[in-house]
Amino acid sequence: MKKNIILGITGSIAAYKACDLITYLVKKNYSVTCITTKEAEAFITRLTLETLSGNKVYSDMFEMPEKREITHVTLSEKADLIAVCPASANMIGKLAAGISDDLLTCTIISSKCPVLIAPAMNDNMYKHGVTQRNIRELRKIGYEFIGPISGRLACGYIGTGHIAELTHITQRIEKILK
Ligand SMILES: Cc1cc2nc3c(=O)[nH]c(=O)nc-3n(C[C@H](O)[C@H](O)[C@H](O)COP(=O)(O)O)c2cc1C
Domain segments of the chain: what residues? Predict the structure, then answer.
């Protein structure tokens, strides 16, 4: 049976990388369902994500579901893995604080499956004490992290904040799902 991956996409310039990730995972016979934050939609379109994944893209917690169900609970119950890729500093902060004010945070906090987070941000944002504290807190409760790595950032500087290599992310996903 196909394993279900929820791919959370946040408002980062690296959001376009989710496309290659989806393509790879679909080829490997995983079912990929994307949840975007409102800010992610400024970087990537629902049309692209739905076309590549072959599944409905979820974003709005209050959109009327097709069946009588609560979307975030249904999504989290079906998930074998939730990967947040790319994960913004804001999303990492919200998860560490238990804030659940959108569909992605609600789905994650109501899930029991493994959670993999691939941060992508400006290097100062990444190195900031608050971000580092948030990552430590999430690691303590079992969330896995991959990257970021050093590379050219959207701001033009070279620094640590670049999303991990896709091959490494896919390898980690496959390892977790084995
Ligand atoms: C052009 C642009 C690029 C951005 N890239 C990032 C990024 O890579 N990482 C990050 O943490 N925030 C980035 N931001 C800021 C986030 O979009 C902002 O914090 C947003 O509130 C995140 O919302 P979300 O976590 O709900 O998706 C960027 C903003 C802009 C305008």
Answer: 4-177
Closest atom of ligand 1 to CA, residue 40? 27
Using CA atoms, how far residue 129 sits from 5, 89, 95, 124, 137, in Å, is 31, 12, 16, 10, 12
CA of 69 from ligand 1 middle (Å) equals 31
Ligand 1 atom nearest residue 161's Cα: 8
pTM for this one? 0.96
CATH number, domain 4-177:
3.40.50.1950
| 159 bridge partner residues | 151
Q: 7, 9, 12, 130: which to mutate for ligand 1, most atoms within 8 A of CB?
A: 12
Per-residue pLDDT tens over the stretch 77-95? 999 999 999 999 999 999 9
